[in-house]
Design a protein that fits this description.
Layout: E1 7-13, H1 18-28, E2 34-41, H2 47-54, E3 58-61, H3 70-84, E4 88-91, H4 100-105, E5 110-114, H5 126-132, E6 137-144, E7 154-161, H6 168-191, E8 195-198, E9 201-204, E10 207-208, E11 214-215
Parallel strand pairs: 1-2, 1-4, 2-3, 4-5, 7-11
Antiparallel strand pairs: 5-6, 6-7, 8-9, 9-10
Helix pairs in contact: 1-6
Pfam families: Formyl_trans_N (PF00551)
Site (Raises pKa of active site His): 150
Binding site for N(1)-(5-phospho-beta-D-ribosyl)glycinamide: 17-19
Length: 221
């Protein structure tokens, strides 16, 4: 990125795109000093494509079912991304496990949001698992992507309380509301150059993070 060129963002989605919408809104409001160059989706007809189109953002459907295997799909996806020269690739509900080769190619400019307070509850069904374990606190984490699933360095988190009698659906709604606040904020930090990945560690404002900052439960309840 040069001084005369805006920070370039690519977003990968699979579904409705609510986190995409939060980032679109933050860019439109001037809160993120950058531009979403393209939204790429692996599922035709996903609602997030409509959100992007309404915002005047270029979209592309790259249907994974048209490719023989994960490696071939990821190779084409990487080529499409490199053509737009993104400074940051944002996974916003992109429901595919990326190959090691793809992740390595974009290491340091590839981030994801996961619905748990990592390193707790990697993988799927995090809300129900947290309830079943008797947790009183849950949330979401934005992290750099590395080849190991949901194990990349965490940039920031947001927490919500788990209430007595909570269902996974109610808990998911509260976590998602925090995702929509947290993800644009982290994208802004990266676009401003405040956050970088160096030697496998997250640096914020030229200092290595001892622990990721967290929006606490009282701000989310």
């Amino acid at each position: 990125m040069s001084e005369n060129q805006p920070f370039r963002i690519a977003v990968l989605i699979s579904g409705g795109g609510t986190n995409l919408q939060a980032i679109i809104d933050a860019v439109a409001a001037g809160d993120i000093p950058g531009r979403i160059e393209r939204v790429i989706c692996n599922r035709p007809g996903a609602g997030g494509l409509t959100r992007a189109e309404h915002a005047g953002i270029d979209t592309e459907v790259l249907d994974h079912r048209a490719y023989a295997d994960r490696e071939r799909y990821d190779a084409v996806l990487a080529e499409r991304l490199e053509a737009i020269r993104p400074d940051l690739v944002v996974l916003a509900g992109f429901m595919r496990i990326l190959t090691d080769g793809f992740v390595t190619r974009f290491m340091g400019r590839l981030i994801n949001i996961h619905p748990s307070l990592l390193p707790a509850y990697r993988g799927l069904h995090t809300h129900q698992r947290a309830i079943d374990a008797g947790e009183t606190r849950h949330g979401c984490s934005v992290h750099y992507v590395i080849p190991e699933l949901d194990a990349g360095p965490v940039i920031a988190q947001a927490a919500v309380p788990i209430h007595p009698g909570d269902t996974a659906e109610r808990l998911q709604d509260r976590v998602q509301a925090m995702e929509h606040r947290l993800y644009p904020e982290v994208v802004r930090w990266i676009a401003e150059g405040r956050v970088v990945l160096r030697s496998g560690r997250v640096w914020l404002d030229d200092e290595p993070l001892a622990a990721p900052p967290c929006l606490e439960p009282e701000a989310a309840s």
